[in-house]
Amino acid sequence: MSAFTQQIEWDNNLINRYDLAGPRYTSYPTAPQFQESFTETTLLHAITRSNQAQRPLSLYFHIPFCDSLCYYCGCNKIVANNKSRSLPYIHRMIQELSLYADLFDNRRQVKQLHWGGGTPTFISDDEMSLLMHATRRLFRLADDSEGEFSIEIHPGRVSIDTMKHLRDLGFNRVSMGVQDFDPRVQKAVNRYNTFEQVSELMQGLRAQHYQSVSMDFIYGLPLQTLSSIKETLTKIIDLNPDRLSLFNYAHMPHLFKSQMLISDKELPSAAEKLDILHFAIQTLEAAGYIYIGMDHFAKPEDELVRAQQARKLQRNFQGYSTHKDCDLIAVGASSISMIDNIYVQNAKDLNAYQQKLDLGLLPIARGFTLNDEDQLRRFVINSLICHLRLDFAELEQAFTISPREYFAAEIAQLAPMIEDGLVTVDNSGIRVHNKGRLLIRRVCMVFDEYLQKPVQSGNQVRYSKII
């Protein structure tokens, strides 16, 4: 039986022992390693290598605007009542996309496209058409049967008519942030969507033939209890989404000012959060969902499950994702591209982003070039976090190393985890057992070279807890 089809093995003692703070590994190296000294020339060289490789493309658009402030949110967003702010921003994104279109080989196909935010449906239907038509003019998009074109939505603030418009534009997947159905919790975080609204929306999405619907749900929010979570999960399962993401709320008001509006006294304790997570995982598995890893679940027939089975799953800035073979072009403020062996992030500040484009420049602010060691360790971490295994023969063939010798120090660090039954190391490779699945980030941290380096005073990076 595959480890992914087994019910998760829960051990509170092990969780408490290994539940440290650590990266989520949506990239390796992680974003704190990005450097402001990164140049546009480095990006252009990476694009040249990317064109030579002729990999397919993925496009990401960051639309940061929201109608209202969700207190828990740590995203780069702009809460605005003035809808007129969006059109100048869309024109800048089209301008940025046009700059990239001039640099990339126009024979390369876009297999994946995603609008994130913020709340992309903040913009009007006409603005959606403008942006999507420009994208099709500048890049060669796959057809509906082959392309994965998704959008994030707030189910309490989008109409069925708008979703029909988006389907006509070519979107075939939806990710909606439900978060919680309890009215008390919704009031505590200023995020509202009723079960009736979401249910009506789901019926509309199915009638409009969206291929996949994903729902986000957050545990650890103020006033959440095990009893309230049971009610919310029952409703979510009744809604029958294709995928689910179960995110841990990380309360870090020192980083995110909006979280100061959440009362510490109303947050569930660490023990209560563990009980909620345990119940949620058991409930979703019993309902037939496959636990992909970390915070992702999917139905057995979903493409995410098939990608994992085919060892084509990846971690990127949207979490677990298909289309591992794509180079990612990201446009919009704060968005991060992943092209050949580089990461490059746009300016986070909206004015700085727009000013660079007004000068005819790509709006990049910082980036990172992966050396051979980084690419080796990215391969290791992606294999472990996506597939719970690292095959030494595959690693040796790809990087011409003797894995047991090369990673002797890291394997030695795994000794306590081996003793606790989290992992096994033998001549064939490393295997993460069922008991270690919840702690996969901790396993990956052993291979993170940057975590092993001494931290200079003032440069300490504060990560969220693993669980």
UniProtKB/TrEMBL annotation:
Cofactor or coenzyme needed: [4Fe-4S] cluster
Protein keywords: 4Fe-4S, Cytoplasm, Iron, Iron-sulfur, Metal-binding, Oxidoreductase, Porphyrin biosynthesis, S-adenosyl-L-methionine
UniProt catalytic activity: coproporphyrinogen III + 2 S-adenosyl-L-methionine = protoporphyrinogen IX + 2 5'-deoxyadenosine + 2 L-methionine + 2 CO2
EC number: 1.3.98.3
Presence of keyword Amino-acid biosynthesis: no
PROSITE patterns: RADICAL_SAM
Co-factor remark: Binds 1 [4Fe-4S] cluster. The cluster is coordinated with 3 cysteines and an exchangeable S-adenosyl-L-methionine.
Record's keyword annotation contains 4Fe-4S: yes
Top-level enzyme category: oxidoreductase
Domain Radical SAM core: 51-285
Subcellular location: Cytoplasm
Pathway(s) the chain acts in: Porphyrin-containing compound metabolism; protoporphyrin-IX biosynthesis; protoporphyrinogen-IX from coproporphyrinogen-III (AdoMet route): step 1/1
Cross-referenced Pfam families: HemN_C, Radical_SAM
InterPro entries: Coprogen_oxidase_HemN, Coproporphyrinogen-III_oxidase, Elp3/MiaA/NifB-like_rSAM, HemN_C, rSAM, rSAM_horseshoe, rSAM_sf
Gene Ontology molecular function terms on file: coproporphyrinogen dehydrogenase activity
NCBIfam families: hemN
Function as written in the Swiss-Prot or TrEMBL entry: Involved in the heme biosynthesis. Catalyzes the anaerobic oxidative decarboxylation of propionate groups of rings A and B of coproporphyrinogen III to yield the vinyl groups in protoporphyrinogen IX.
PANTHER family per UniProt: COPROPORPHYRINIGEN III OXIDASE, OXYGEN-INDEPENDENT COPROPORPHYRINOGEN III OXIDASE
Similarity remark: Belongs to the anaerobic coproporphyrinogen-III oxidase family.
Subunit structure, interactors included: Monomer.
Entry protein name: Coproporphyrinogen-III oxidase
